Structure prediction request, 263 residues.
Amino acid sequence: MKVKDKVCVVTGAAGGIGEAIARRYAKEGAKGVVVADRDADRLRAVADDIRGLAVACDVAKEADIKQLVAEAERRFGPVDVFFSNAGIGRGGHEDATDKDWADSWAIHVMSHVYAARALVPGMLARKSGYLLNTASAAGLLASMGSAPYGVTKHAAVALAEHLAIQYGDRGIVVSVLCPQAVDTNMLRMAGAGAASVDGVLHTDAVAQTVIEAMDEERFLILTHPEVKEYMARKLDRDRWLRGMRRLRDKTGEGQKRGEGRRA
Prediction:
């Protein structure tokens, strides 16, 4: 799908990957770009720069997602592209707090569910639409320093697969973005860790990859090509797990129970 003349919504757009994608959608000639985030002040600055619409939104709340879609449609018309990108960083292993687990689940999984509920009926009726969810390479591989992050990002990938199976031959394109280390505030707060082994990308490079993948309507969007090889290695789980433990020891990431990051 070409973005030109399309109505695009981007969550988590006050900075990082979301902001870069929103700016790129505008540059590509989108009919309208709607940016959503909880950081209302920064969001308005982004919207003003790209002549888009800013909507303050907590993606963990279904009512906010419904309102976001409604405001986008009132301003620009039916939503063609919904980039469900908002994310958080929470550290810890099985001992992470219930709140950290619940917040991670709400933002990394249920926000995508809420978007699909709001958009799929109309997209099916029009036989056209694009649902793009941000997961992470951690959703394909592992997140050694954070069980809540890695587990919920795996769930995000599984949800995208389900949506692609259900609707991929009915006019709705589904993609899932799975980057490794990207130069964002979340990465800087958490520390690069093992994710930076293959380099840290600028958000503009990620936006370029997303545009290329959308043009080709690829399901899996990888910013770091090495991830394909790592996925292949994972087929031999026992060997892969031994290798991940060695990487854990080498990087010092997440070795102790209770270690983790809070963002």
